Protein 1
Amino acid sequence: MGAMAFVPLHPVGSPRERFLDSAEIQQHAEAMEQRLSTLRERREVVRAGWGEKYVERVHAKGKRTARERLEMLKDDDAPIREVGTFVNHGVKFGKLESPAAGVVTAFTKVGGRWVMVIANDNTVASGSWWPRTPEKIERAQEMALLLRLPVVYLVDCSGLFLPE
Protein backbone atom coordinates (compact mmCIF):
# COMPACT_ATOMS: atom_id res chain seq x y z
CA MET A 1 0.00 0.00 0.00
CA GLY A 2 1.43 3.39 -1.03
CA ALA A 3 2.14 6.23 1.35
CA MET A 4 -0.11 9.25 1.28
CA ALA A 5 1.39 12.67 0.66
CA PHE A 6 1.49 15.15 3.52
CA VAL A 7 -0.10 18.45 2.56
CA PRO A 8 0.25 21.10 5.25
CA LEU A 9 -2.74 23.41 5.50
CA HIS A 10 -2.22 27.07 6.29
CA PRO A 11 -4.87 29.80 6.58
CA VAL A 12 -5.00 32.16 3.60
CA GLY A 13 -5.96 35.81 4.00
CA SER A 14 -7.14 37.64 7.05
CA PRO A 15 -10.29 37.20 9.13
CA ARG A 16 -13.00 39.55 7.93
CA GLU A 17 -13.21 41.11 11.38
CA ARG A 18 -9.76 42.55 10.73
CA PHE A 19 -11.09 44.92 8.04
CA LEU A 20 -14.88 45.03 8.66
CA ASP A 21 -16.72 45.81 11.87
CA SER A 22 -19.79 43.80 12.91
CA ALA A 23 -22.20 46.43 11.53
CA GLU A 24 -20.54 46.24 8.10
CA ILE A 25 -20.60 42.44 8.17
CA GLN A 26 -24.33 42.55 8.98
CA GLN A 27 -24.92 45.10 6.19
CA HIS A 28 -23.16 42.86 3.66
CA ALA A 29 -25.12 39.82 4.86
CA GLU A 30 -28.43 41.67 4.44
CA ALA A 31 -27.44 42.90 0.96
CA MET A 32 -26.48 39.34 -0.02
CA GLU A 33 -29.79 37.96 1.28
CA GLN A 34 -31.67 40.57 -0.75
CA ARG A 35 -29.83 39.52 -3.91
CA LEU A 36 -30.40 35.83 -3.16
CA SER A 37 -34.10 36.52 -2.63
CA THR A 38 -34.30 38.24 -6.03
CA LEU A 39 -32.49 35.30 -7.62
CA ARG A 40 -34.91 32.79 -6.00
CA GLU A 41 -37.92 34.82 -7.21
CA ARG A 42 -36.58 34.98 -10.77
CA ARG A 43 -35.86 31.25 -10.79
CA GLU A 44 -39.47 30.60 -9.71
CA VAL A 45 -40.76 32.75 -12.60
CA VAL A 46 -38.65 30.70 -15.05
CA ARG A 47 -39.71 27.46 -13.36
CA ALA A 48 -43.38 28.37 -13.89
CA GLY A 49 -42.90 28.39 -17.68
CA TRP A 50 -45.96 30.00 -19.20
CA GLY A 51 -47.96 29.40 -16.04
CA GLU A 52 -50.44 27.07 -14.37
CA LYS A 53 -52.80 27.06 -17.37
CA TYR A 54 -50.07 25.39 -19.46
CA VAL A 55 -49.22 22.92 -16.70
CA GLU A 56 -52.90 21.94 -16.65
CA ARG A 57 -52.84 21.48 -20.46
CA VAL A 58 -49.87 19.13 -20.13
CA HIS A 59 -51.63 17.16 -17.37
CA ALA A 60 -54.89 17.02 -19.39
CA LYS A 61 -52.94 15.17 -22.13
CA GLY A 62 -51.86 12.59 -19.55
CA LYS A 63 -48.29 13.93 -19.56
CA ARG A 64 -45.96 15.40 -16.99
CA THR A 65 -43.99 18.63 -17.19
CA ALA A 66 -40.25 18.55 -17.85
CA ARG A 67 -39.42 19.25 -14.22
CA GLU A 68 -41.90 16.61 -13.01
CA ARG A 69 -40.26 14.05 -15.32
CA LEU A 70 -36.82 15.12 -14.09
CA GLU A 71 -37.98 14.73 -10.49
CA MET A 72 -39.22 11.19 -11.26
CA LEU A 73 -36.01 10.26 -13.10
CA LYS A 74 -33.47 11.37 -10.50
CA ASP A 75 -32.37 9.35 -7.51
CA ASP A 76 -34.52 10.04 -4.44
CA ASP A 77 -31.79 11.84 -2.51
CA ALA A 78 -30.15 13.59 -5.47
CA PRO A 79 -30.13 17.35 -5.90
CA ILE A 80 -31.12 19.00 -9.18
CA ARG A 81 -28.69 21.69 -10.31
CA GLU A 82 -30.16 23.59 -13.24
CA VAL A 83 -27.78 25.40 -15.56
CA GLY A 84 -28.60 28.03 -18.17
CA THR A 85 -31.72 29.00 -16.25
CA PHE A 86 -31.75 32.57 -17.51
CA VAL A 87 -31.14 31.98 -21.23
CA ASN A 88 -33.55 34.32 -23.08
CA HIS A 89 -34.42 36.04 -19.79
CA GLY A 90 -36.24 39.30 -20.51
CA VAL A 91 -36.18 38.77 -24.29
CA LYS A 92 -39.47 39.05 -26.18
CA PHE A 93 -40.20 37.25 -29.43
CA GLY A 94 -43.11 39.31 -30.67
CA LYS A 95 -45.34 39.32 -27.58
CA LEU A 96 -44.04 36.02 -26.21
CA GLU A 97 -41.20 35.07 -23.91
CA SER A 98 -39.37 31.75 -23.78
CA PRO A 99 -38.35 31.11 -20.18
CA ALA A 100 -34.99 29.28 -20.12
CA ALA A 101 -35.19 29.01 -23.93
CA GLY A 102 -37.92 26.41 -23.49
CA VAL A 103 -35.54 23.70 -22.29
CA VAL A 104 -34.43 22.51 -18.85
CA THR A 105 -30.75 21.56 -18.53
CA ALA A 106 -29.63 20.19 -15.20
CA PHE A 107 -27.11 18.04 -13.39
CA THR A 108 -28.51 15.31 -11.16
CA LYS A 109 -27.83 11.71 -10.19
CA VAL A 110 -29.46 8.71 -11.86
CA GLY A 111 -28.59 5.23 -10.63
CA GLY A 112 -25.97 6.74 -8.34
CA ARG A 113 -24.17 8.45 -11.22
CA TRP A 114 -24.07 12.15 -12.10
CA VAL A 115 -25.68 12.91 -15.45
CA MET A 116 -26.70 15.92 -17.51
CA VAL A 117 -30.43 15.93 -18.20
CA ILE A 118 -31.87 17.90 -21.11
CA ALA A 119 -35.67 18.17 -21.19
CA ASN A 120 -37.90 20.26 -23.45
CA ASP A 121 -40.18 22.41 -21.29
CA ASN A 122 -43.61 21.44 -22.54
CA THR A 123 -45.20 24.31 -20.59
CA VAL A 124 -43.51 26.76 -23.00
CA ALA A 125 -45.07 26.46 -26.48
CA SER A 126 -45.34 22.67 -26.06
CA GLY A 127 -41.57 22.35 -25.73
CA SER A 128 -40.78 23.89 -29.10
CA TRP A 129 -37.34 25.26 -29.92
CA TRP A 130 -36.67 28.99 -29.70
CA PRO A 131 -33.74 31.21 -30.55
CA ARG A 132 -30.84 30.12 -28.29
CA THR A 133 -32.41 26.71 -27.54
CA PRO A 134 -29.87 24.86 -29.73
CA GLU A 135 -27.00 26.81 -28.17
CA LYS A 136 -28.24 26.01 -24.66
CA ILE A 137 -28.51 22.31 -25.50
CA GLU A 138 -25.06 22.34 -27.12
CA ARG A 139 -23.57 24.02 -24.03
CA ALA A 140 -25.14 21.38 -21.75
CA GLN A 141 -23.70 18.63 -23.95
CA GLU A 142 -20.26 20.31 -23.87
CA MET A 143 -20.36 20.45 -20.07
CA ALA A 144 -21.27 16.76 -19.93
CA LEU A 145 -18.50 15.89 -22.39
CA LEU A 146 -15.88 17.84 -20.43
CA LEU A 147 -17.00 16.19 -17.19
CA ARG A 148 -17.37 12.76 -18.88
CA LEU A 149 -21.01 12.48 -17.85
CA PRO A 150 -23.78 10.69 -19.70
CA VAL A 151 -26.55 12.83 -21.20
CA VAL A 152 -30.19 11.89 -20.68
CA TYR A 153 -32.57 13.62 -23.08
CA LEU A 154 -36.25 13.75 -22.08
CA VAL A 155 -37.90 14.65 -25.36
CA ASP A 156 -41.40 16.13 -25.56
CA CYS A 157 -41.19 18.73 -28.26
CA SER A 158 -43.59 20.06 -30.87
CA GLY A 159 -40.79 21.34 -33.11
CA LEU A 160 -39.73 24.92 -33.73
CA PHE A 161 -41.34 28.23 -32.81
CA LEU A 162 -42.13 28.97 -36.45
CA PRO A 163 -42.41 32.79 -36.28
CA GLU A 164 -38.71 32.85 -35.37
Note: Residues 118 and 153 are 5 Å apart (CA to CA).
Protein 2
Amino acid sequence: YAHIPLKQKHVPDNVKGLGPVRNWVLDTFKNEVVVMIDDDVMKLRAACGLHTRNITDPEMIRQIVYRTAVCAKDLGTSCFGFSQNPNETHYKASEPFSFVGYGGGVIGVVGRKHRFIENMFKVDVDFCLQVMMEDRVVWIDNQYSFVQHRNRNKGGNSLFRTKEKQDAEIEGLRKKWG
Protein backbone atom coordinates (compact mmCIF):
# COMPACT_ATOMS: atom_id res chain seq x y z
CA TYR A 1 0.00 0.00 0.00
CA ALA A 2 1.12 3.55 -0.61
CA HIS A 3 0.45 6.70 1.33
CA ILE A 4 -2.18 8.81 -0.37
CA PRO A 5 -2.25 12.39 0.90
CA LEU A 6 -5.81 13.29 1.85
CA LYS A 7 -7.28 16.11 3.84
CA GLN A 8 -7.61 14.45 7.20
CA LYS A 9 -10.84 14.36 9.13
CA HIS A 10 -10.71 12.90 12.58
CA VAL A 11 -13.57 11.02 14.15
CA PRO A 12 -14.72 13.06 17.16
CA ASP A 13 -13.81 11.60 20.56
CA ASN A 14 -17.47 11.23 21.51
CA VAL A 15 -18.13 8.84 18.57
CA LYS A 16 -17.37 5.40 19.97
CA GLY A 17 -17.91 1.97 18.48
CA LEU A 18 -17.82 0.69 14.93
CA GLY A 19 -21.48 1.40 14.10
CA PRO A 20 -21.36 5.05 15.19
CA VAL A 21 -18.01 5.52 13.39
CA ARG A 22 -19.36 4.03 10.16
CA ASN A 23 -22.47 6.27 10.36
CA TRP A 24 -20.25 9.30 11.05
CA VAL A 25 -18.31 8.48 7.87
CA LEU A 26 -21.55 8.25 5.87
CA ASP A 27 -22.74 11.57 7.30
CA THR A 28 -19.40 13.34 6.82
CA PHE A 29 -18.33 12.24 3.34
CA LYS A 30 -20.88 13.01 0.65
CA ASN A 31 -19.53 10.75 -2.12
CA GLU A 32 -22.18 8.44 -3.56
CA VAL A 33 -19.91 5.45 -2.88
CA VAL A 34 -17.89 5.18 0.31
CA VAL A 35 -15.41 2.39 0.99
CA MET A 36 -14.39 1.77 4.59
CA ILE A 37 -11.22 -0.19 5.26
CA ASP A 38 -10.53 -1.51 8.75
CA ASP A 39 -7.19 -0.59 10.27
CA ASP A 40 -6.18 -4.24 10.63
CA VAL A 41 -6.28 -5.05 6.88
CA MET A 42 -2.83 -6.35 5.96
CA LYS A 43 -3.00 -7.35 2.30
CA LEU A 44 -5.13 -8.23 -0.69
CA ARG A 45 -5.12 -11.83 -1.90
CA ALA A 46 -6.31 -12.93 -5.33
CA ALA A 47 -7.72 -16.45 -5.43
CA CYS A 48 -8.51 -16.35 -9.14
CA GLY A 49 -6.05 -17.29 -11.86
CA LEU A 50 -3.57 -20.15 -12.04
CA HIS A 51 -1.92 -19.29 -8.74
CA THR A 52 -3.08 -17.32 -5.75
CA ARG A 53 -1.06 -14.22 -5.12
CA ASN A 54 -0.84 -11.08 -3.08
CA ILE A 55 -1.65 -7.89 -4.92
CA THR A 56 0.53 -5.02 -3.77
CA ASP A 57 0.24 -2.45 -6.54
CA PRO A 58 -1.89 0.41 -5.15
CA GLU A 59 -3.35 1.25 -8.56
CA MET A 60 -4.41 -2.36 -9.13
CA ILE A 61 -6.00 -2.48 -5.67
CA ARG A 62 -7.84 0.76 -6.41
CA GLN A 63 -9.09 -0.65 -9.72
CA ILE A 64 -10.33 -3.87 -8.07
CA VAL A 65 -12.27 -1.89 -5.45
CA TYR A 66 -13.58 0.53 -8.09
CA ARG A 67 -14.73 -2.28 -10.38
CA THR A 68 -16.50 -3.99 -7.49
CA ALA A 69 -18.24 -0.71 -6.60
CA VAL A 70 -19.40 -0.28 -10.21
CA CYS A 71 -20.83 -3.82 -10.24
CA ALA A 72 -22.75 -3.15 -7.01
CA LYS A 73 -24.08 0.18 -8.26
CA ASP A 74 -25.10 -1.29 -11.62
CA LEU A 75 -26.85 -4.15 -9.81
CA GLY A 76 -28.79 -1.66 -7.70
CA THR A 77 -27.57 -2.82 -4.30
CA SER A 78 -26.41 -0.59 -1.47
CA CYS A 79 -23.49 -2.73 -0.30
CA PHE A 80 -20.47 -4.59 -1.61
CA GLY A 81 -17.55 -6.48 -0.21
CA PHE A 82 -15.04 -9.21 -0.80
CA SER A 83 -14.57 -12.83 0.19
CA GLN A 84 -14.13 -13.33 3.92
CA ASN A 85 -12.06 -16.44 3.35
CA PRO A 86 -8.47 -15.85 2.21
CA ASN A 87 -7.92 -19.62 1.88
CA GLU A 88 -7.61 -20.19 -1.87
CA THR A 89 -8.77 -23.81 -1.56
CA HIS A 90 -12.28 -22.47 -0.83
CA TYR A 91 -12.46 -20.41 -4.02
CA LYS A 92 -14.68 -21.85 -6.76
CA ALA A 93 -13.89 -20.53 -10.24
CA SER A 94 -17.53 -21.15 -11.20
CA GLU A 95 -18.62 -18.70 -8.45
CA PRO A 96 -16.47 -15.57 -8.89
CA PHE A 97 -19.12 -13.49 -7.12
CA SER A 98 -22.12 -14.02 -4.89
CA PHE A 99 -25.28 -12.14 -4.01
CA VAL A 100 -25.35 -13.12 -0.34
CA GLY A 101 -22.82 -12.82 2.43
CA TYR A 102 -21.20 -9.96 4.22
CA GLY A 103 -18.41 -7.54 3.62
CA GLY A 104 -16.07 -7.12 6.52
CA GLY A 105 -12.63 -5.59 6.71
CA VAL A 106 -13.43 -3.69 3.55
CA ILE A 107 -17.07 -2.73 3.08
CA GLY A 108 -18.51 -0.49 0.41
CA VAL A 109 -21.71 1.50 0.72
CA VAL A 110 -23.59 2.86 -2.30
CA GLY A 111 -25.93 5.73 -1.46
CA ARG A 112 -27.40 6.35 1.99
CA LYS A 113 -30.45 4.09 1.94
CA HIS A 114 -29.29 2.12 5.00
CA ARG A 115 -27.64 2.94 8.32
CA PHE A 116 -25.33 0.88 10.47
CA ILE A 117 -26.68 -0.40 13.76
CA GLU A 118 -25.35 1.71 16.65
CA ASN A 119 -23.42 -1.21 18.15
CA MET A 120 -19.71 -1.50 18.77
CA PHE A 121 -19.12 -4.84 17.04
CA LYS A 122 -20.50 -7.00 14.20
CA VAL A 123 -22.19 -4.01 12.56
CA ASP A 124 -21.11 -5.06 9.05
CA VAL A 125 -23.02 -8.34 9.38
CA ASP A 126 -26.18 -6.51 10.45
CA PHE A 127 -25.76 -3.94 7.66
CA CYS A 128 -25.41 -6.64 5.00
CA LEU A 129 -28.48 -8.46 6.35
CA GLN A 130 -30.46 -5.19 6.15
CA VAL A 131 -29.34 -4.73 2.55
CA MET A 132 -30.24 -8.32 1.65
CA MET A 133 -33.71 -7.85 3.18
CA GLU A 134 -34.46 -4.60 1.33
CA ASP A 135 -32.27 -4.61 -1.81
CA ARG A 136 -32.42 -8.42 -2.02
CA VAL A 137 -28.69 -8.78 -2.75
CA VAL A 138 -25.23 -7.64 -1.74
CA TRP A 139 -22.35 -7.83 -4.21
CA ILE A 140 -19.50 -9.99 -2.91
CA ASP A 141 -16.44 -10.41 -5.15
CA ASN A 142 -15.15 -13.89 -4.27
CA GLN A 143 -12.05 -13.52 -6.43
CA TYR A 144 -10.35 -11.32 -3.84
CA SER A 145 -9.99 -11.29 -0.09
CA PHE A 146 -8.60 -8.53 2.09
CA VAL A 147 -6.64 -10.37 4.76
CA GLN A 148 -6.79 -8.85 8.19
CA HIS A 149 -5.47 -9.60 11.64
CA ARG A 150 -8.72 -9.16 13.52
CA ASN A 151 -8.82 -7.99 17.12
CA ARG A 152 -5.06 -7.49 17.45
CA ASN A 153 -4.61 -3.72 17.07
CA LYS A 154 -4.36 -1.35 20.00
CA GLY A 155 -6.87 1.47 20.21
CA GLY A 156 -10.28 1.78 18.59
CA ASN A 157 -12.75 -0.91 19.62
CA SER A 158 -10.04 -2.85 21.45
CA LEU A 159 -10.33 -0.26 24.23
CA PHE A 160 -13.81 -1.53 25.12
CA ARG A 161 -13.92 -5.02 23.61
CA THR A 162 -14.69 -7.79 26.05
CA LYS A 163 -15.92 -11.30 25.41
CA GLU A 164 -19.11 -10.52 27.30
CA LYS A 165 -19.87 -7.43 25.19
CA GLN A 166 -19.19 -9.28 21.94
CA ASP A 167 -21.30 -12.25 23.03
CA ALA A 168 -24.17 -9.90 23.96
CA GLU A 169 -24.09 -8.21 20.55
CA ILE A 170 -23.93 -11.57 18.74
CA GLU A 171 -26.95 -12.72 20.77
CA GLY A 172 -28.72 -9.48 19.80
CA LEU A 173 -28.09 -10.27 16.12
CA ARG A 174 -29.47 -13.78 16.60
CA LYS A 175 -32.65 -12.37 18.18
CA LYS A 176 -33.04 -9.75 15.46
CA TRP A 177 -32.32 -11.98 12.46
CA GLY A 178 -33.04 -15.53 13.70
Note: The two ends are 39 Å apart (CA to CA).
